[in-house]
């Protein structure tokens, strides 16, 4: 199974954070993919401007929500994008979480149905991945797609996911990071991004409990130990070490979600992390 080539380092962020100039900068720093969060609409309009601005960068969706984006419309967008930019687009899809979707029902069966439509519409399995946390959906990702895109996971989850996926499937976990050597300040910034909303969403909480975290760790905006497990912080070398932890655990690509104070320019941080990661 051949999917768009993913180098070891990518970025993850809401689709509104990325523009063509930032995409060019990220490619020049050594990032090989941008993953667009925020449940992109079925037209996938944000994808082509980023691809057109770069030479080899892969753009992926992280993720298209099956409840809000019609499968046939998404397949049409996939055909449009891959015709113009062959080998540079990866369609990430997932069920989201029940607290955000009133139509949330039979999530596993609905995801299978969505994949069936993508099959009927000619979207190759090797050009799509699934948002997957638990073993059942990880097995579905193994059997019906190029692989898995887990979100809000420590390297221990990456290790378990690789065991389920096998050696020949893509594994691209997201990793939140804060470039700050003041542990208290970094932890507080990270805690805000983790607690709201993820520590109040059943699928993420269930996954953390599967990994051994207790109710006391999840309560009150998350224990320091939990936040440290989910958000890498420190200087660029320390952050790069956390990213390499996912690689050592079996990730093909680790996706940097760089957390900064509101309005900060992320470019210098992206560059420093990539430099440290590559050393």
TrEMBL record:
GO molecular function terms listed in the Swiss-Prot or TrEMBL record: oxidoreductase activity, acting on paired donors, with incorporation or reduction of molecular oxygen
Ranked from the top, the taxonomy reads: Bacteria, Bacillati, Actinomycetota, Actinomycetes, Jatrophihabitantales
State the organism of origin: Jatrophihabitans endophyticus
- GO-annotated cellular components: cytosol
Pfam families in the record: Bac_luciferase
Luciferase-like domain: which residues?
21-118
Q: Tell me the protein's name.
A: Probable F420-dependent oxidoreductase, MSMEG_4141 family
Give the source's domain of life in one word: Bacteria
Q: Which InterPro entries match?
A: Bact_Lucif_Oxidored, Lucif-like_OxRdatse_MSMEG_4141, Luciferase-like_dom, Luciferase-like_sf
């Amino acid at each position: 199974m051949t999917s768009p080539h993913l180098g070891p380092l990518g970025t993850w962020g809401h689709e509104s954070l990325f523009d063509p100039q930032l995409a060019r900068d990220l490619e020049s720093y050594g990032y090989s993919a941008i993953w667009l969060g925020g449940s992109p609409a079925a037209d996938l309009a944000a994808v082509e401007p980023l691809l057109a601005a770069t030479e080899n960068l892969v753009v992926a969706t992280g993720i298209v929500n099956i409840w809000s984006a019609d499968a046939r419309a998404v397949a049409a967008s996939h055909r449009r994008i891959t015709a113009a930019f062959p080998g540079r687009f990866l369609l990430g899809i997932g069920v989201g979480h029940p607290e955000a979707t009133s139509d949330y029902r039979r999530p596993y069966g609905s995801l299978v149905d969505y994949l069936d439509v993508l099959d009927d519409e000619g979207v190759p399995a090797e050009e799509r991945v699934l948002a997957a946390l638990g073993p059942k959906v990880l097995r579905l990702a193994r059997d019906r797609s190029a692989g898995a895109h887990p979100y809000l996971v420590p390297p221990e989850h990456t290790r378990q996911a690789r065991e389920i996926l096998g050696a020949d499937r893509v594994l691209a976990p997201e990793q939140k990071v804060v470039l700050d050597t003041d542990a208290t300040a970094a932890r507080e910034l990270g805690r805000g991004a983790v607690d709201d909303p993820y520590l109040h969403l059943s699928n993420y909480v269930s996954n953390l409990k599967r990994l051994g975290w207790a109710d006391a760790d999840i309560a009150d905006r998350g224990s320091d130990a939990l936040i440290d497990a989910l958000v890498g912080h420190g200087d660029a070398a320390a952050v790069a070490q956390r990213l390499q932890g996912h690689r050592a655990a079996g990730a093909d690509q680790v996706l940097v979600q760089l957390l900064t104070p509101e309005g900060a320019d992320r470019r210098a941080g992206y560059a420093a992390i990539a430099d440290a990661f590559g050393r």
